[in-house]
Amino acid sequence: MKVCWKILSYVMTVLLTAAITLTICLITFGPNSKGANKLVQLETLIGECFIGEVDVSEMEDAAAIAMVECLDRWSYYIPADQYQAYQEQMDNAYVGVGITIQLDEESKGFRIKEVTPNGPAREAGIQVDDILIGAAGQDIRGMDTEGVAGLVKGKENTKVELTVLRDGEEKRFTVTRKKVAVTVATGTMLDGGIGLVTIENFDARCAEETIAAIDSLVEQGATAIIFDVRNNPGGFAAEMVEILDYLLPKGELFRTVDYRDREDVQMSDAKYLDLPMAVLVNRNSYSAAEFFAAALNDYDAAVIVGEQTSGKGHFQNTFELSDGSAVSLSVGKYFTPGGVSLEGVGITPEVPVAVNEETEALIYYNQLPAAEDPQIQAAIAALNPT
Fold first, then answer.
1. How many angstroms separate the CA atoms of 58 and 81, rounded?
2. pTM (2 d.p.)
3. Taking the domain 93-181, which CATH number applies?
């Protein structure tokens, strides 16, 4: 009999525990909540029942990232604290000192790979290959790039002290943060009367600067043009179309179909640039950079040189959300003048030229002279067949 009472006592304890658990679940998921969104239910459950501390903003960011990432390769979520930097990138202008850095494994500091011409760092005396080891009074060795950027960036017209190593000697510079306009397109005359136009992206001012670079090279006597869109992430379709209109004769330039099946076709007028052309591409040529090359090739206006491109055929619109975050969402598809989608396919160069990792890095940081760049030299050869 004693054993039976013990069993009965245990059963009663389990039933009471289950009843308590059931009561909690009914509060959250009772009949009135059947139509509630799963994410709302989950957030409510975590808020009411999770035993630890909850950062709601961090949790919602994580959920948003996961939701968008499962859609396609190209849509992405932008947290509220990163949205301003995103807008600055699209504007090709930011408040900072004008340097590009890369982790230096040996020193644990950051090697300065680029210094923006006429930027605050250049004016202060900072040079390419200096090793940044301190910012705003802090030793940055061992920090990540994002942490360093947080120290270097700040409000316009404020000052920041930067410490660098140059030939093993520490040097300190006081730099005034300013709005730095990123140079989007540059023109360089190569030997043999060939002009090289390097296009960094297709964001704000791309068309204006690219056309100005072309005009300048033509005035200098260029008899052929090479466009370099290697490592170009793409940008605004309108900027790309404006350049193509300048380069190509009358005809279709660019076709899009959006999520409502609405089709839009951009056309070129009859004026065009009557010069031999080539386009340099690589695996980091995305979106508008790919379609720029494809459109020129569809008109037999340019030969494509380099490596297979990324294959981005969806375009995105950016939508700001109520908390200041945003989502860049794929809302349509691109098609070349020949009606081809590059999604998942990309462009196969007519003149394939592979490079090793070391050369690729030099090209990325604009540190490889044209005479030593195998892809530029292959483009020159394609424009001057013997």
1. 11
2. 0.82
3. 2.30.42.10
